[in-house]
Amino acid sequence: MKFRLKITLCMLGLLSVLFGVGGGLLITLSFHDSLEREEASAYNAYQMVLGTLQIVNAASEQTDYADVSETLRQLSEQNEGSWSALRLYTASQTVYEHDAADLDRPDELPALGSCSMRHATTDGDGHLLALSGALEADDETLYLDMAFDVSSLFEARQAQLWTYQWVFLLMAALCAVLSYTLARVLTAPLVRLSEASRSIAAGQLSTRVRVRTEDEVGLVARDFNAMAEAMEENVSRLEEAAARQERFMGSFAHEAKTPLTSIIGYGDLIRGQVLNAEEQTQAADYIVSEGKRLENLSAKLLELLVLKREDVSLSAASPSALVQGLAARWEPLYRAQGIELSCECEEGWCMLEPDLVKSLLVNVWDNARKAMDGRSGSIRVRCEMLVDGCRLSVSDDGRGIPPDALEHLDEAFFRVDKSRARAQGGAGLGLSLCREIVDVHGGSLRFESKVGEGTTVIAELRGGAA
């Protein structure tokens, strides 16, 4: 059963209870009030007749109650319509009777000075209010029965009940229409939520619900949109991760296949003894070169796996001392290639993993060296202290990087110029390793470059203050 139908049925049930009980109670109270007024009026009329008979009987000298009967006849003619039946009788005979065919005598004769009241029905489904009392006449007791027609009260009540039933049915129909319409309006956002959830389940992750209200339903709609947006972002990240993994596997297979093909080819030539001594030496040198490239590739992959799977503990260290100590070792090698390596460091301490930071610097410096394309140039290293770590920036005046390649630099096996990188022995994993090292330190890695002017790599390490 739909929720809107449940609301409609609840409203109908509530209307039935409240309107039914209230209306029925109002009609009943009105009927009893009218009946009580009729009873009071009938009692007064009965007491008037009874008092008149007592006066007449006291003044009369007749013993056959002729004066009493005449008095009752005259009263009936004068008060025609006030009562519908009248009977005066003794225990043995009827003294006077007027239209009393439908008036039954009481089951027990009333005592002197009392007046009993009862309700009776006629053969024509009429309703009578009967009163019975007794008076003393000489040495004998007379009994007086009077009946008043109250059928109009019962007919009025029945008419009110019929009117009430039709009004109740009309109100119920109107309530059903209004309740269903209102429930449809109130549950419309829930229907849209259901449709949106089915759409998302079918793969339409961009589906959202329009929020038009500020009530609880609107709050649910906003929370649903927030959940859908978060889910879409998570799925997008998963898809990007899957795509990167797919590219990683494809690139790894290609990187491993190229040197293996060369090694197998040259090895097969050497085994076939079809090369002279000089060619064999060249083939052996190529095999060693490609083997070292495979060794470098496996070492880089191993470092990446270690960083992804192991927890790294940071310790207090001086970035300035670390940078300057590493530069002192590498500066002679770079100077021999016509490259000037300079450092500008700010003193301070922060939380680092020294070996990983050294690996970060070596990889970035090596990329800067390769960007020179064998010509002279300069590599400038700058170290700045931050509140919660340090900032390392490495700038070179090499060939630069195209803007469309900057966002892919830290992807595994990505190389701006594949042929030049392979000739220089690069595997395309250095900056991926740098990204992992920066992530371990809770920092960020970004690149700034202009083609023909050089590149700046900025690594912010936010492992905390020492």
From TrEMBL:
Residues 221-248 form a coiled coil. Keywords: ATP-binding, Cell membrane, Coiled coil, Kinase, Membrane, Nucleotide-binding, Phosphoprotein, Transferase, Transmembrane, Transmembrane helix, Two-component regulatory system. The keyword Cell membrane applies. It catalyses: ATP + protein L-histidine = ADP + protein N-phospho-L-histidine. Its EC number is 2.7.13.3. InterPro entries: 2C_sensor_his_kinase, HAMP_dom, HATPase_C_sf, HATPase_dom, His_kinase_dom, HisK_dim/P_dom, HisK_dim/P_sf, Sig_transdc_His_kin-like_C. The lineage of its organism: Bacteria, Bacillati, Actinomycetota, Coriobacteriia, Eggerthellales. It comes from Enteroscipio rubneri. This is histidine kinase. It is a multi-pass membrane protein.
